[in-house]
Design a protein that fits this description.
The complex is a heterodimer of chains A (159) and B (88). With 159 residues, chain A is an alpha+beta fold. In chain A, 44% of the residues lie in helices and 28% in strands. In chain A, a hairpin with a 2-residue loop joins strand 4 and strand 5. In chain A, helix 2 crosses helix 5. With 88 residues, chain B is mainly α. The chains are: A alpha+beta (159), B mainly alpha (88). The interface between A and B is medium-sized, with 22 and 16 residues.
Chain lengths: 159, 88
């Protein structure tokens, strides 16, 4: 069974491969890669949901994220939410955020029908991505035991 | 100088929600809470608990690391929010 480190390494390799596979940026315009990684105990999210489910959910996650994280009976899945929170934090790290105001709602993690995740940036997060010159983003969501993790890879464009 | 009541209430919230390894009474008003072990996710719970305790709501412009970095910074933010809400 793969260790947690091995799974994170595989997720990082997958994110890099995904970025390379669809990068339309001309070789001469490709700037350096920026990587963000975040790990979160799912139990932390479960406790937040138990304490104040609606306020917690509404302050941190977009409507679209909450829709994707609800089971058929309407219950929010703490694992799926924890993965999305980790992805938001990994995005902030990849963007080298120090003390800028980036509301959680401005970073939304969406999954397609096959479960492949992607990032939707709006408002302050989109503006910061432009400022940093990040044209391409790739995100991976990971589950390891009781941990949720995410890797975000961003490539800046130099022209 | 922070009021004792406000400082004590902030420490109570930190003890309950910041998941620090130490008791908040051992922290100074200037101690870096993230340096003391508060995670980003724990800071969300701290924010929600502060909103309930002080009957305020942190607007988007205050959702940044420095606002929750210390007891002193939190107190300043709450003071600003309560001043805005206070009757003229």
């Amino acid at each position: 069974m793969a260790s947690e480190v091995e799974r994170l390494q595989a997720a990082l390799a997958g994110a890099l491969a995904g970025l390379a596979g669809r990068d339309q940026t001309p070789q001469s315009c490709r700037g350096p890669l920026s990587v963000g990684l975040d790990v979160l105990e799912v139990g932390e999210v479960a406790l937040s949901l138990a304490a104040q489910p609606e306020r917690y959910a509404r302050r941190v996650y977009t409507d679209a994220e909450l829709c994707e994280c609800r089971s058929s009976c309407g219950t929010l899945d703490p694992f799926a939410l924890a993965q999305r929170f980790a992805a938001k934090e990994a995005t902030l790290k990849a963007f080298r955020v120090l003390d800028e105001c980036i509301p959680w709602h401005s970073i939304s993690v969406r999954c397609d029908n096959l479960g492949k995740p992607s990032l939707e940036l709006t408002g302050a997060a989109a503006a910061l991505a432009d400022l940093r010159g990040f044209g391409e983003l790739e995100v991976s969501l990971i589950r390891v035991g009781g941990l949720a993790a995410s890797v975000v890879v961003a490539r800046s464009q130099t022209c | 100088m922070l009021s004792v009541e406000r400082s004590d209430e902030i420490r109570r919230v930190i003890d309950a929600h910041a998941r620090l390894a130490v008791n908040a009474t051992t922290l100074t008003d200037e101690t870096d809470l993230f340096g003391a072990g508060m995670t980003s996710h724990a800071s969300v719970n701290v924010m929600l608990a502060l909103e309930a305790a002080f009957d305020v709501e942190f607007p988007d412009r205050m959702l940044k690391r420095s606002v929750f970095a210390s007891i002193q910074a939190i107190a300043a933010a709450i003071e600003e929010l309560q001043a805005v809400d206070a009757p003229v």
